[in-house]
Amino acid sequence: MPAVSFQDVCKTYAGARGTLRALDGVRFDIAQGEFFGLLGPNGAGKTTLISILAGLTRASSGRVTVMGHDVVADYAAARKALGIVPQELVFDPFFSVRETLRIQSGYFGLKHNDAWIDELLQELGLADKAGANMRQLSGGMKRRVLVAQALVHRPPVIVLDEPTAGVDVELRQTLWQFIARLNREGHTVLLTTHYLEEAEALCSRIAMLKQGRVVALDRTANLLAGTASTMLRFKTDQPLPAALAGQARVTGRIVQLKAHDAAEVETLLAALRAAQVKVEDLEIGRADLEDVFLEIMQGATA
Amino acid sequence: MNGVRMLLYKEVLRFWKVGFQTVAAPVLTAVMYLLIFGHVLSDKVEVFDDIGYTRFLIPGLVMMSVLQNAFANSSSSLVQSKITGNLVFLLVTPLSHWAWFTAYVGASVVRGLSVGAGVFLATAWFSPPGLAQPLWILVFALLGAGMLGALGLVAGLWADKFDQMAAFQNFIIMPMTFLSGVFYSVHSLPGFWYQISHLNPFFYMIDGFRRGFFGVSDVSPWLSLGVVGACFLAVSAVALHLLKTGYKLRH
């Protein structure tokens, strides 16, 4: 039995300018114990898909199960098996951190949950904030409480919707250590993120969404192996020749060019020399997930 | 079952933490009404025989406070949670629509009765109204608070903005409570308005409630019970249906 199963999920919104197809036949499974990444540009349908999984949104057609439980027909069992960290930084201003966690436990019918709440507070670096009102916490601290809230009922499936957006380095590390531990202990993790290096480091398998469709679904290692394996990176202040400008990825002064083999690297360098482009900090490296991502997003026709 | 209890507890704790605003303030408002209207109108308004105007006014003010605060509790809690987004914490739980209904309406009843008891204690010593048939007091307080709690739930689900919520409260709930016979006996009204008053369900709540104190009322308490009971069931059915279908909650 898969931990999560998306079966031909479609979602259309009726808007003023006709219907918008947010999800178009999404179909894949996440096995129990996997650390799974869901990637895609803004508006690809990631959050819609996760909202359907959590029961916050209803699919127009198709079916979603969590640990074998249909999220609509058998919603109580499905939601007990699921812990969601929402993307928005929301909180209830009436309560303290500990009250918030006790209340959330209570919703799931858990009465004496303080040992686990204490462990969550400890692991997420919230122990000294337990008595503080939610309003007094910084954004990063509120984010930690959101994570703790999603975990109060020890769900076998954990969903993190861009949990590190706008979060400092310390929390990112604390968070990933803890989530990785839970994953080792058998929890399934579904992660959406914009930080591709995070997905590369953490996820064993990845699905990429574009305009509501799955355009790639494979083990992370296979995705990395399946693309042009070499990247030429350098810095320059000068414009690139037209022939190269089209295929280059430029971030400020940094230019990245794709090369399939050593001969192509030489061709590229020759072209740069011919155009009298002054190159600094030249390096040749392996393609990373970002390169794969861009290649797939550019290539995929939805 | 545990989950419902926690949601009820949380909803009660929510208003209790701001008790000055949610309990003390409405009690003070009701005392003001009593002092001002009781003084100004005591010789001008004709109510039941042998019952002074201030005595007559007290149960009406108590019930008006019960109703308005029961409505305010569920509606403001829901609208706030929707607008700030923290309703998501509830939406991801296994709680059923019955659980939501029970907890939100239950907390409304607790708030309504707390404020009502406060108003009664603060006003009764001006002119003790007596407790002729106390069971009616209890029945109408519970049913009235329950109905307004359910109505608040419906309004809270419907409203997308605080503005819409305020409109519901000020243009529907306030006029209906003020025109229900809190400050007068409907028998003192001209024919047309006397007839109209009988179409207002709030009239039956106040009249039945007052019956419990004085043993007299404008209409039979059994008729009032029938009307209020039917209204409670109808509004509850609507609220439960909206919760079950996820109206404005699950898109």
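qc> Residues 53-84 of chain B form the longest helix (32 residues).
qc> done
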